[in-house]
């Protein structure tokens, strides 16, 4: 089936095929004009791998032992890159060390100010670093929220059961 051809200013345009390309572009890419994915198009599925990655994995499949052996041989022969590669696999990257200092018990949300003061004192005396103190305070904040939620739940239950035995802290 031939499409209509129109002549404008000496150039020939095929309007039907232009429309077909535009529709195909929307269908193929499913993106809005701003580049975001359009409705009904979540993007690539989780865990999807690029064609080149899949091809490389297929080629390397079953060769892991031989490649590892060769990397160790090269490292033992003095190849610095192979040595670094082997050491990165043998010795994992260092994780955070345990931080030891006194923290008062947290039985209620009211105890959090004592805990925060203890953390600030540990930072001020260089027992822990400021970044460690910040991370510990985030954990304390999660604990505060949990304690606060428990206390609110107890108060609601008490109010719903007739207001007897309201516990305040």
Automatic annotation (TrEMBL):
<feature type="region of interest" description="Disordered">
    <location>
        <begin position="1"/>
        <end position="53"/>
    </location>
</feature>
<protein>
    <submittedName>
        <fullName>DUF5681 domain-containing protein</fullName>
    </submittedName>
</protein>
<dbReference type="InterPro" id="IPR043736">
    <property type="entry name" value="DUF5681"/>
</dbReference>
<feature type="compositionally biased region" description="Basic and acidic residues">
    <location>
        <begin position="1"/>
        <end position="21"/>
    </location>
</feature>
<feature type="domain" description="DUF5681">
    <location>
        <begin position="35"/>
        <end position="93"/>
    </location>
</feature>
<dbReference type="Pfam" id="PF18932">
    <property type="entry name" value="DUF5681"/>
</dbReference>
């Amino acid at each position: 089936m031939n499409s209509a051809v129109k002549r404008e200013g000496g150039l020939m345009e095929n309007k039907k095929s232009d429309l077909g390309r535009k529709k195909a572009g929307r269908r193929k890419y499913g993106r809005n004009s701003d580049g975001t994915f359009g409705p009904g198009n979540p993007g690539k599925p989780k865990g999807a791998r690029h064609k080149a990655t899949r091809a490389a994995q297929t080629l390397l499949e079953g060769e892991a032992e031989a490649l590892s052996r060769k990397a160790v041989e090269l490292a033992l022969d003095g190849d610095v890159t192979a040595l670094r590669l082997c050491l990165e696999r043998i010795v994992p990257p260092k994780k955070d060390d345990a931080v030891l200092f006194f923290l008062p018990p947290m039985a209620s949300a009211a105890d959090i100010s004592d805990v925060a003061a203890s953390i600030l004192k540990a930072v001020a005396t260089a027992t822990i670093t400021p970044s460690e103190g910040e991370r510990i305070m985030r954990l304390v904040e999660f604990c505060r929220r949990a304690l606060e939620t428990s206390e609110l739940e107890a108060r609601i239950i008490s109010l719903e059961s007739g207001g007897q035995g309201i516990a305040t802290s």
